[in-house]
Amino acid sequence: xATETMVQNQQLExxxxxxxxxxxxxxxxxxxxMSPKVDALRILEPVRKKLASIEAxxxxxxxxxxxxxxxxxxxxxxxxxxxxxxxxxxxxELVCAIKENxxxxxxxxxxxxxxxxxxxxxxxxQSTIRKVKLKExxxxxxxxxxxxxxxxxxxxxxxxxxxxxxxxxxxxxRARSGICADLILALMELRDFEFERxxxxxxxxxxxxxYVQKIIKQDKKNTDIIATLEAELATAIQDKxxxxxxxxxxxxxxxxxxxxLDLFSxxxxxxxxxxxxKQQLTYQKDSEGRIAKYQEEMSQLRTQLNNLISEHRASEVxxxxxxxxxxxxxxxxxxxxxxxxxxxxxxxxxxxxxxxxETILLFELEQKISMxxxxxxxxxxxxxxxxxxxxxxxxxxxxMGKAAVTIQSFWKGFKVRQLMKALKKKKKGKKKR
Length: 433
Prior knowledge:
Layout: H1 2-34, H2 40-44, H3 54-73, H4 76-81, H5 83-90, H6 92-118, H7 121-126, H8 128-160, H9 163-170, H10 178-199, H11 202-432
């Protein structure tokens, strides 16, 4: 019976494979017939490689300039950290602008930090004076933000006038943070995307749309073919289920045969139970003798246990005394630790007050320095103008001296030529005589 069922299963699987493989071959042929002659990737790619309109070129140039400016701005912290290395290449004006930018950034961070420290709902509910102070600090932060933005614009303007500095900082691209690098890559991808969109003309876009519509129609045809194949697959599955019902009927007959075997085996089981009951009586007698023996051993072990308990109680009293002594020592150490901690806390409060006073002095000194910085920059500019005037005068005197030397040499040559002509005339007159 089992061999017959296995043969029937193999025949059914072969039939299912034939029914499924037949339509799929037809589907592959139909797909090959529907495949277009033109490559889809070539049609979807833009035909042109250059922009045709001025507006498109302007859009791309705006994106490229934005990328260049962001590349410069993201390197400003690295330039400030390495001003000693880039001092000569950047120039005095650019170095001063970077320092000014870092100073404004520090003031802005300090102001924002102070604002977050005092921005507490409990403090705001105490008095309206604190609210007024918070508004003033917010206005100061806005002013600092505007000054910081103008300083960044000034740095970009100076970089535009100094192309050599731009070339030098381009080599430091690895100093950017990961977020800045991701931003620049995203902008570059945006530029490439916009460039591809601007390369496509309206007529080309219409052709591509028509081509996509053709592909959609082909896809609908393919879905219809898939639906027919699924229907054929459903019929094949139904045939397989019918075959499984037949196999289940065979299994039911086998189960009935097994039940009959169970009935024949009941007599054998009854006999085995009788033998087991006899063995159980013999085992019970043996177990009663063992239980008596074990009870004697238990009484001996209980006496040993009582002796051990009396011994361990004496040792427990000694350990308790030792524990009490150790606990008293620990309490004394804790009291000493609390006293030392109180002294350290008082010392910390004293140092904190001194630190607060020094921070106030530092802020006042920074304000004085910020007031003196414009005068310093004006003096540096005046010195620069005087140096340029001095160099111009030196160049003018050098050119005048060179011109005088050339005039003198020309005049000497002219005199020498006149003397030579006079000598030649004298020699001719003597020959005629």
